[in-house]
Structures are given as C-alpha cells and as structure tokens.
Amino acid sequence: MRFAYLLKNLFSFSSLKGRLLLGLSFTLLLLIALVLGMAWQVGKTMVHDTNMSHLRYEATLLADEVTQQIDMRFQALERLREMIGATEDASWISYQLRQNDSLLAWFEGIVVANRDGKIIADWPAIVGRVGLETSELEYFRMLRGIRRPYVSEPFVGRASGMPLVLVGVPRFTEQGDFDGFVGGILSLDSGGIFSRLAKVRLGEKGYAGVATSSGKVLYHPNTSLINASVPSRSFNPLLDLALDGWEGDGVGELLSGEMALQSYSQVWPAGWIVGLYLPISQAQLPLADFIRQLWWTWVVLVLLMFPLLWWMLGRVLSPLRYLEKQIGEVGLGHRESVSLATNMQELQQVASTFNRVEDERQLLLGNLQEREAFLDSVLNAAPQGMFVANIKGDITYMNPALLEMLGVSADSPMDYWIKQIHMDDLDGAQDMWVHSLRTGSDFVRQLRFLRSDKELLWLDIHARVVTLSQDGQTLGLVGVVKDITERREQEAIQRWEAEHDPLTGLLNRRGFERRLEEAFADFQKTSTPSALLLFDLDHFKPINDEGGHALGDEMLRRIAQVVAWEVRRSDHVARQGGDEFGVLLPSCTLAQARRIAESLRQSVSEISVTHEGKEFMVTLSIGVTTFDDSDSSVDDVLARADAGSYKAKEHGRDGVVINMPHDDVMELFDQSK
Asked: Which of these, 621, 598, 664, 468, lies nearest to 535 by C-alpha position?
C-alpha cells in the first residue's frame, strides 16, 4: 500500500511538488537531448572525415593494385611477343602459345593477329576464333595507331557471348612497322583482375566499382550492370569528373536514391576509374547506435532519480504544508493569523501578506454585513417590486412587494415561474436579458405575466448592470418592476376610441384611412390585390326629419350590424361620417368585391324602422374599385370609388357601379328601382 501511494504521488503533477519534479525532469531530459544533439553533430563530422579518409586510402590502394595487375599482364604479353618474334607461321606461334600455358592463370585466352587484323593463332583453341577479322574493331585500330600496350573497351565475345576486354601489345617487323598484336582476353565476369575488388567490405551497402574513361561499367557487385553505361553527368557530377581524369572524393547520390560518400582513383595504364561508395546511413549507423544507447542510458538514470528528487522536494516544500494547515484554521476561525518557523524568505513574505489581507478582509466583512443589513431593510420596505440577479442572469432575490405582485413564493424556482410570462413575450425578453448581460446595457422591457390565479398583468421592467468602479467587473443586475396593467388598459381604450365610431362601433375615418394606407403599402410591395367599397344611404334624410335623430341613429346601428355580418372577418368596415360608409377588402379580387357589394345592397334593402305606424327603409348606392399600379396614393382609389357611388345615385340609386382606371364607361349592374 505504501509503495502504491508513493507511485500515485510520484506521477501526480497537479501539485507544486509534482510540477517541480516534472520541471526538473524535463530540464534534465532537455539538457541530455542538447548534449546528445551536439555529440551527434560532432560525431557526424568525425565519422564523415574518418570514412572519407578510409575510402580515399582504399581507392588509391585498389587503383594501385589494378594498375599493377595490368602492368604485369602487359609485361607477360610483351615477353610472349618476343618469343614469337616477327614470324607469321601459325604452327610456330601456336607452339609458343602452348609452351606459355601458364599465362592462362591471368587470361581466359590468348590470341595473335597479323598486320591485317586476322586472328592467326589462339590458345586454348576455340573453334571459330582463328580466322576472325578484327581490323574494324576498336582495339585493333587503337593498337595500330598508338603502337603501345592498350586495354580495349568492353565487348561481348563472338564465340563465348561473355563480356570481355582485350589486353593487347603491338607486334613489329624488324624494320619497326606494325605487324599485328598479341592479346590476352579477360572475362569481366570471372577475371582475376577484379578479385580484390570483390573482397572489399564497406558494411552491408558499401561497394567498389570500376568503369572505363569512356563511361562503360567493368565491375559492379550487380553483375547485370557490367558493360552498361554509367549514370548521366547531371546525376553524379563526381563520377563525371573522374571520367575526365579527376581523382578525389565527395558526397553524391547513388542509383538507389541514397546519398553516399564517394572516392575515385585512376588506373592510368588501362584508362579505368576505380570508385568506392559508402552510403551515409551505413557510415553513420555505428554512431546512431551509440547515441541511441547513450540516450536510453540517460533516460533510465533520470527515471531512477525520480524517487530521490521527490524526497528532496518533499523536504524543501514541507513548510508549505504547515502554511496550508494554518490557512485552513484561519478560514475555520480557529486562529486569527498564520505563523511559520522557517528561514525561507518567500514563505515568510507569503505569510505576512496573508495576515495583512486577512485583517483587511475582516474589516471589509464587518462593513459588508452592515451594508447587507441596511440593504435588506430598504428592499423589504420598498413599495415597488425589486429583484437582484447574479452574473449568470439567475434571479437570486425578490423583495416582498414583487413576490406579492407576481403571486409567487420566495422559494419558487426561477425556471418554474418564468414560464408564466406570456409566450409571445418570452423569447424577446430572454434575448434582451442575454444581450444586457453580455454588453452591460440596461434591460428595459414591457411584457405580460399570467399569475397563478389567471390574472393577466402588464409589467414594466427596468434592470441595470452593477459593475465595480475600479476594474469594471460585472457583479450582476438590480431591477425594478412596475404593474402597468391599468395604464395599458386605459391606453388600449383610448386607442380604440380614437379610431372607432362611438355610435356603431365601426372604424371612423381616421382608423379606416390608416388601414387603407397599410393595405396600399402591401400592394406596392407584394402586389397583394385589395378592393374598396364606398356607399351612402339612399332616402335616409326623411328618417331624421320625421322620426328624429334617435330613429336615424337606430337605423345606422342596424345597418352597421348587417354590413359587419355580411363581410369577411379580415375586412374593415367604417362609418366615415353621417350616412357615409366604407369597406376595405384586403386580398380580394374584383369579382369577389362585386359579389360582396351586391350582397350588402340586398341585405341593407331589407332593413326597416317604424315610427308612429310608418315604416322607413333605405337603399345603398355603392361604388366599387380595386388598387391599381397606376395609383400614386390612396386618394386615387378613394376618388375612384366615390365617383362610382355618385354614378350609382345618378342612375336611380340602389345599385352597384364598378369604376376601374382607364375604363371609358363605368359598369352598372343589379340596379333595383
């Protein structure tokens, strides 16, 4: 259990002790990484220089050895040439070749050609080789031209089909004229001249190669490349320099795409280049293994140091635990200040600062309690509804006046009574509340609230964000709530009275014109069709003259009821004054307006009032029109409908006249006299 507790604390970095341990460990690892990084850079330079020196030495050694092999073969062929002499006797020459059978240790075969380039003798004898013409071949022309020992370009043997080179020395007559050549054939697949190169070991990927100065591969570990051309000049500039006679070393790319250390040396007698290649990854492999082992050694050492560092940090930070304990006792009220017996100046300063802050806190706490008591008294005694909200927007306090106003208890959760706000006002109020909290602006809103007893209240709410004067930190909101239900009702009554006729309850001229303007604006924006009916009462004057204004008022009320009953609920009916009436039909076509007008004419003609045994009746002269694109204002529409009404009167009253713009003749129909 003790070990498990130690491991838990050891790998817990949420404490100061754990973080210090993490910091020290990270610093050690970073230091180790920097040291190993520097060692890696220095080691790479040393490895590069060492391997380059080794390659340079090996390349020179191999080139010297190949040069010696070529020189020895030149000398052997020259001795054979002296033994043969200037004769062209094929039997004698073949005899001499058989007598020098030991030369086959250095050559796969020996041939002798005359001055015309024809092979006159060979050993060992191969069918078809004697008699071959070489006069047009590269090595014959070179031997005849330079008249000194020469190593040919690689070629494929006619008889053997193998990649070969010919090491040849010219023959001369007694007068010193060219008299053919003596040549030794070397196989590039199995010739002993490259046996030393095959034994070169440069790690798993390093190798040696030989090429002619003309760019043909003579030796390569990959035998499929023998007799192929070397890579292009742009691919390996170092090799291109070596083909021109340069000796040296550098870094270049291999056919595999790897970068490698390269060293070149010349085999001058043969015109060959010996190249050694060591991939950089191979050269740096021992260094990388060493750095990796060293890294893990240091990591293990750091991990093993964890318990020791943990114990040492625990000893150093032990006064902090005493400080924590004493601060907790101060918070519980068991002591008034902290006191540490330590020589650490930082902890002494922390303890001194804490004691000073605690004294100031106690003083402020006392003042705060006095202010809270005073504020509670003020809020409880305030006749207006007041509330306090925190920075999250949650209402944390409502005074008794507000609780009584809303009909909720003090312990009611906010999400319960917030649902009693009218659904049409809730979303807007919440959005405004969030905006005020975010921006610090005042919350001003009028909304409807349904009490638990189903009484609907209109509330005026004004809340202000409270901030600290020093740093502008928001503390919450303080708000005042007023019951404006009675005022809203009075305002609604006044608005209704301002736009309605007191006798009939219909819209008056002012209310009708406002709705007409709104419908005309919709028509201009969305081309929504609307129709207008204007009419006054025929034969209404006798009712007032004989029956008095009371009888006339009764007739007007009955007509208003019938008209309001006959039109649609979305239509607007108005008494514009006296016996003049108007009907606005929003979203109505001309055909619909015509049917409604005829229905009104028919229904009103059946209304009657009686006075002293005499029955009085009225009829309607109705003008009908619709909004048109040519109308510049509602005055154009009113004038057109009014003209239609007058035309109906001129035609004997009790009729409907359709008056549309650009019509030469008004349409009169359904007239009853």
From this structure: 621
At 2 the pLDDT is 47
Q: Are 347 and 323 in contact (CB under 8 A)?
A: yes
d(C-alpha 396, C-alpha 389), whole Å: 5
In this predicted model, what pLDDT tens digit does every residue of 295-325 receive, in sequence order? 888 778 777 777 877 777 677 766 777 777 7
Degrees (nearest 5) of the Cα angle 27, 33, 37?
145
Short-list 68, 54, 109, CA closest to 272:
68
DSSP string over 63-120:
HHHHHHHHHHHHHHHHHHHHHHTT---HHHHHHHHHHTGGGGGT-SEEEEE-TTSBEE
- List Cα–Cα distances, 582 to 445, 494, 541, 570, 626, in angstroms: 38, 23, 19, 14, 13
Residue 34: HSE in the Cβ half-sphere, 13 Å Cα cutoff: 6
Query: How far is 643 from 655, CA to CA, in rounded Å?
Result: 13
Residue closest to 532 by CA, chosen among 555, 510, 513, 556: 513
Alpha carbon 506 to its chain's center: 63
Query: Cα–Cα distance between 426 and 445 in angstroms, integer?
Result: 11
Residue with tokens 């649902």: 419
- In this structure, the number of other CB atoms found within 10 A of the CB of residue 366 comes to 10
Where is 614: in which H helix or E strand? strand 614-617
Cα–Cα distance, 249 to 239 (Å, whole number):
10
Q: What angle do CA 152, 155, 161 make, to 5 degrees?
A: 140
Determine the pLDDT at residue 141.
Answer: 92
Residue-wise burial string across 9-45, b where 16 or more C-beta atoms lie within 10 A, e elsewhere: eeeeeeeebbebbeebeeebeeebeeebeeebeebbe
pTM of the model: 0.47
pLDDT tens per residue, range 166-216: 999 999 988 889 999 999 998 877 556 777 676 776 777 788 888 998 888
d(CA 198, CA 192): 10
Residue 405's φ and ψ, nearest 5 degrees, are -60, -45
Element spanning 599, H or E: helix 590-604
Relative to beta strand 248-253, strand 259-267 is antiparallel
- Tokens 């109906």 map to which residue? 648
Give the closest residue to 172 by CA, choosing from 295, 97, 249, 78: 78
Question: Token pair 């930082």 is at which residue?
Answer: 346
| Separation of alpha carbons 333 and 663, rounded Å | 98
List of long-range contacts for 221-224, beta carbons under 8 Å, 24+ apart: 223/189
Distance of alpha carbon 165 from alpha carbon 218, whole angstroms: 9
d(CA 353, CA 231): 79
Q: Say if CB 137 and CB 118 are below 8 A apart.
A: no
Partner residues linked to 168 by β-bridges: 150, 183
